[in-house]
């Protein structure tokens, strides 16, 4: 049995990606928590930005990878791509949930509300629901090929849907009232930019590292299942035929 | 034109089955009525309060009712392996999809029309002057719901726990359709000038086109054996 060449490549490089993630995150955390100045409006509260914004970026990046991988799967039907999609969905769901949670924690002191019907918040909530539905869908199908196809369909439709969600909520709110609090007005001081960039890079690397590990795990799982099936059929075949 | 013939036959088949059994329409109408009744006694409202929430109530009721109709449109194909027959039929999958969407829109829209007088009575609505725009809203939102719903109904009917999975997958996807539908309905019921809520109708039409095209292409993948 040969291991897929993509998995071979992953096994070779995953250590570098993980190490890079650790370095970037440590440096980013040091600069973000100790080395950078507090915001002159928000004070120390602003430091949650160094976690929240990279998490949110990475979650969106993850969903883009998921949609791209799904198209790729439907085109080439390579099971490794499906394993990658499955892994990406689970990790994206974690990042989305964490981004939403840190956003709420940040929102309470700055906006004085855990939740507002802001376009980004709503699209993230819908994104989380779609990802959880995606993961749930995968547990409901026994045939692996069918599972891969249906999951891809859901991911692609979700990718078409998310900009529409964002746009419709933005429009809904602007028709009612101008958005009173917007993050867009905050321009970033140079002392804050370095930790933010480092943390974003670190989160993306961490995401890639987790993705590599999980894809590998799912791939090996599938190989194991196939092997088990072959062994079982060898022992049971004479009985089944009679 | 072969595809149009297929679409017509699919619609005809579904309508005839429905007219003979009256299962789906009756259960949908009855369910929607119960939802509306529950809403009407869970909020005791005066006219003004009613105007604020009625559009939301309407679309919660219609969306939940839609789940029944959409689920039925494909689970009715399961006995006697009709789904496999549909799959093997030498016609384009896209035509099957559009036929199913058309039939679903027809059923949902029929139930909505049927329930509208009930709504007016239960919530003491003033009879709306501009009924045509309200009907356009209902129609466009129903198309959006049915476009995605038909795809997901075809998908969930082939997996485990299909009754649960259809709303779980479908409802997050139709959030934008619901927002636009509620806003347009609110405008029409309040008697606002159409220029105020007209953009929501345009938006609904755009959503319908985008979602239908995407679902149309993906339906082929869902129907592969």
| Rounded average pLDDT of chain A | 86
Order of helices and strands of chain B: HHHHHHHHH
Largest sheet features of chain A: none
Radius of gyration from the alpha-carbon trace of chain A, in angstroms = 22 Å
Strand-residue proportion of chain B: under 5%
Q: What is the count of helical runs of chain A? A: 6
Briefly note the structural class of the backbone of chain B: mainly alpha
Low-confidence segments of chain B, ≥5 residues, pLDDT <50?
Answer: none
**Biggest sheet details of chain B:** none
Mean pLDDT of chain B: 89
Strand segment count of chain A: 0
Low-confidence stretches of chain A: 177-182
Set down the secondary structure blueprint.
The complex is a heterodimer of chains A (242) and B (225).
Chain A: H1 5-35, H2 49-76, H3 79-111, H4 119-139, H5 144-176, H6 190-241
Helix pairs in contact in A: 1-6, 2-3, 2-5, 2-6, 3-4, 3-5, 3-6, 4-5
Chain B: H1 2-21, H2 23-42, H3 47-75, H4 82-88, H5 93-122, H6 131-156, H7 162-173, H8 175-190, H9 194-223
Helix pairs in contact in B: 1-5, 2-3, 2-5, 3-5, 3-6, 3-7, 3-8, 5-6, 5-9, 6-7, 6-8, 6-9, 8-9
Question: What are the key terms here?
Answer:
heterodimer, A: 242 residues, 6 helices, 0% strand, B: 225 residues, mainly alpha, 9 helices, globular
Q: Would you give an account of this structure?
A:
- The complex is a heterodimer of chains A (242) and B (225).
- Chain A has one domain (15-177, 200-226).
- Helices cover 82% and strands 0% of the residues of chain A.
- Chain A has helices at 5-35, 49-76, 79-111, 119-139, 144-176, 190-241.
- The longest helix of chain A has 52 residues, at 190-241.
- Residues 177-182 of chain A have low confidence and may be disordered.
- By secondary structure, chain B is an all-alpha fold.
- In chain B, α3 packs antiparallel against α5 (93-122), α3 (47-75) crosses α7 (162-173) and α6 (131-156) crosses α7.
- Chain B has one domain.
- Chains A and B meet through α4 and α5 of A and α6, α7, α8 and α9 of B.
């Amino acid at each position: 049995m040969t291991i897929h060449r993509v998995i071979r490549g992953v096994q070779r490089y995953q250590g570098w990606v993980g190490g890079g993630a650790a370095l970037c995150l440590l440096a980013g955390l040091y600069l973000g928590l100790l080395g950078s100045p507090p915001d002159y409006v928000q004070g120390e509260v602003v430091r949650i930005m160094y976690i929240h914004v990279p998490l949110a970026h990475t979650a969106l990046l993850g969903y883009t990878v998921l949609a791209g991988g799904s198209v790729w799967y439907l085109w080439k039907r390579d099971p490794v791509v499906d394993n990658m999609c499955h892994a990406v969905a689970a990790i994206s769901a974690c990042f989305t949930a964490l981004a939403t949670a840190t956003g709420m924690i940040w929102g309470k002191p700055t906006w004085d509300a855990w939740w507002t019907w802001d376009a980004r918040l709503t699209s993230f909530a819908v994104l989380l629901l779609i990802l959880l539905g995606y993961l749930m869908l995968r547990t409901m199908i026994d045939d692996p090929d069918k599972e891969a196809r249906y999951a891809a369909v859901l991911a692609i439709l979700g990718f078409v849907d998310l900009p529409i969600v964002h746009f419709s909520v933005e429009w809904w709110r602007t028709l009612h009232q101008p958005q009173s609090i917007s993050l867009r007005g905050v321009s970033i001081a140079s002392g804050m930019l370095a930790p933010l960039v480092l943390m974003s890079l670190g989160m993306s690397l961490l995401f890639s590292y987790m993705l590599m590990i999980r894809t590998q795990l799912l791939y090996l799982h599938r190989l194991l299942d196939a092997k088990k099936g072959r062994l079982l059929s060898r022992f049971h075949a004479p009985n089944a035929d009679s | 034109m072969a595809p149009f013939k297929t679409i017509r036959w699919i619609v005809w088949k579904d309508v005839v089955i429905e007219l003979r059994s009256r299962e789906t329409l009756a259960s949908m109408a009855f369910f929607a009525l119960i939802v509306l009744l529950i809403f009407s006694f869970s909020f005791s409202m005066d006219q003004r309060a009613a105007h604020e929430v009625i559009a939301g109530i309407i679309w919660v009721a219609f969306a939940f009712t839609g789940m029944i109709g959409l689920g039925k449109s494909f689970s009715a194909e399961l006995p006697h392996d009709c789904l496999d027959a549909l799959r093997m039929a030498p016609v384009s999958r896209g035509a099957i999809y559009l036929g199913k969407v058309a039939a679903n829109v027809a059923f949902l829209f029929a139930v909505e029309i049927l329930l509208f007088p009930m709504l007016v009575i239960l919530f003491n609505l003033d009879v709306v002057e501009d009924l045509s725009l309200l009907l356009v809203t209902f129609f466009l939102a129903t198309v959006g719901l049915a476009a995605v719903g038909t795809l997901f109904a075809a998908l969930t009917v082939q997996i485990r726990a299909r009754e649960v999975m259809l709303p779980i997958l479908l409802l997050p996807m139709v959030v934008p359709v619901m927002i636009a539908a509620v806003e347009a309905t609110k405008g029409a019921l309040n008697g606002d000038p159409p220029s105020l809520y007209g953009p929501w109708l345009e938006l609904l039409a755009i959503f319908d086109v985008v979602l239908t095209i995407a679902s149309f292409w993906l339906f082929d993948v869902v129907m592969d054996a």
